[in-house]
Amino acid sequence: QVQLVESGGGLVQPGGSLRLSCAASGSIFSIYTMGWYRQAPGKERELVARITSGGSTNYALSVKDRFTISRVNAKNTVHLQMNSLKPEDTALYYCNADIVATIRSVYWGQGTQVTVSS
After folding, report:
1. Mean pLDDT, to the nearest integer, of 68-76?
2. Torsion of CA 59, 60, 65, 71, to 10 degrees
């Protein structure tokens, strides 16, 4: 059974930084795109950033130049370095991955809360 487990969320002041991590485990054959999404109260879930197995990335305009996504293929992990955080970045952040195990499917983590407040 494939699982995605996130870590690294928390409370930070505006202008601060946080690093989110997500580890995929289970009987994994390969992982294609990995990404981070977020959902604020009363809003729809939105893409924050994603990265292909080859390292190509794309970002939401609202986080470009502040957030950096990276992955370590050998460890089935993906990270999100978040700098210059703003109150509007407050949300529940979800890890997402397109994984080939017994079948190919998209998996989600349970979410980690990021709160930006003074």
Report:
1. 97
2. -30
102: which 2 tokens?
């017994």
Say how many Å lie between the first and final Cα of the chain, rounded. 40
Residue type, position 83, single letter: N
Residue 5, beta-bridge partner list: 23
| pLDDT for position 79 | 98
Six-digit token pair at 12? 């930070």
Tell me the C-alpha to C-alpha distance, in Å, between residue 98 and each of 5, 6, 45, 66, 82. 14, 16, 17, 25, 23
pLDDT in tens, 35-59: 999 999 999 999 999 999 999 999 9
